[in-house]
Amino acid sequence: MEQVHTQLIEQLIQRFSQADNTPLYLKFAETVKAAVRSGILPQGNILPGERDLSQLTGVSRITVRKAMQTLEDDGVVTRSRGYGTQINSTFEYSLKEARGFSQQVVLRGKKPNTLWVNKRVVKCSPEVAEQLAVAADSDVFLLKRIRYVDEDAVSVEESYVPAELIADPDEIGVSLYDYFRSQNIIPQRTRSRVSARMPDSEFQSHIKLETPVPVLVIKQVAFDPQNRPIEYSISYCRSDLYVFVCEE
């Protein structure tokens, strides 16, 4: 058995021994996510089979199977018959959930980070005005940042937010949605459009790829519970690291 799997088994057994009300399958899934986030389980790693994991950890195969289904649903692993369960090397991002980038990254057992390029008030363009349902040339915050997943630069994102929704842009950390929630602004749903193009020089300068890859362009509007637009974002994402999903 690989050394990384030995470490994982030790962490699983330790987690199972902790007395709390968390179901065993969730303890299992959370431990795997933590191992991915910390780098113990590298991308592409093939996990031991359900029978081996059951025998080595002392939990039932039903528990293991339910944990693996949870990890697959969260985009942490991919399961295929005859091949096994593999730690994903791509980041699945749900276009349906109004959770924001950082929260989705954490839920998939990975580490998010943000490098801010710009936080300033600008006059909005007609396109931004239409998406935010405000008058043209209204004041909006332009929030531009480079997004990271597990130390890899994966996207460049521009967000436009009505100026009155942000009291102090310096209070926005890694997650804009966390800031929204701290101000009692609750993202409820999103509307997205996806297209593709080759990267321009600006994207290359931020992401620094040796070989250019196609860029997925995600234009998304987030709405609050009253169906008011609170953010219009344009994300330029590496197509080799992102998989976008939108389930009904």
Automatic annotation (TrEMBL):
Q: Where are the transmembrane segments?
A: none
Q: Where is the HTH gntR-type domain?
A: 22-90
Keywords of the record: DNA-binding, Transcription, Transcription regulation
- State the taxonomy lineage: Bacteria, Pseudomonadati, Pseudomonadota, Gammaproteobacteria, Enterobacterales
The record's Gene3D superfamilies line, in alphabetical order, gives: Chorismate lyase-like, Winged helix-like DNA-binding domain superfamily/Winged helix DNA-binding domain
Q: What is this protein called?
A: HTH family transcriptional regulator
Domain of life assignment:
Bacteria
Give the organism, scientific name.
Buttiauxella ferragutiae ATCC 51602
Answer yes or no on keyword Isomerase: no
